[in-house]
Amino acid sequence: MNQLLRAGQHAEALNKADRYLAGKPKDPQMRFLRGVVLTEAGRPDEAIAAFQKLTEDYPELPEPYNNLAVLYAGQAQFDKARAALEMAIRTNPSYATAHENLGDVYAKLASQAYSRALQLDAGNTAVQPKLALIREIFAGPGGRPAVSDREAPAPTAGRAAAPRR
Q: 151, 52 in Cβ contact below 8 A?
């Protein structure tokens, strides 16, 4: 399954996951991997549904919340991303990836708030350096911002071992 995913063979990986789940529909590890495959295949709405259902059935697992947050952030739904990450951290306070992603979401929310403040008061000299600092944090190669004010940050998807039950 992981080899298929790494090779970009999303359709085959999804078929394999579906075949496995036909016999063991409650397996959280395979359901998680299926959500990852859907994400990698560029099917975010289906991946969101898969991870949401996984969080309903196994609310104690932090990884589905984290991956759900990554998908929400990718759709600029930062409040939903924040809530999902807070749930991931509640279930596992030492989940470093979720903490990092929460920081990214807060930074993006701050960027949006600072941008709005500048729209309302372009002469506010206190806001400009704050906004510049956040943009620098997310700057990509060549010093150009990796994300704009209208795009999501690039939180890290959970690559930890899939949950086991």
A: no
Evaluated on CA atoms 38, 42, 43, 47, the torsion sign reads positive
With b for 16 or more beta-carbon neighbours within 10 A and e for fewer, the 112-132 pattern comes to bebbebbeeeeeeeebeebbe
User: Using one digit for the tens of pLDDT, what is the confidence trace for 75-104?
Assistant: 999 999 999 999 999 999 999 999 999 999
Domain extent, residue 151, equals 79-157
pLDDT at site 75:
94
Q: Which two tokens stand for residue 52?
A: 């949401």
Alpha-carbon gap, residue 132 to 76, rounded angstroms: 20
Residues 132 and 83 reside in one and the same domain: yes
Mind listing the pLDDT tens digit for each residue in 36-76? 999 999 999 999 999 999 999 999 999 999 999 999 999 99
Residue 14, token pair as written in the block: 């999804």
For residues 156 and 136, the model is more confident at 136
Contact 58, 165 (CB under 8 A): yes
What CATH number has the domain bearing residue 17? 1.25.40
Sequence-separated (6 or more) residues with CB below 8 Å from residue 37: 5, 10, 13, 14, 17
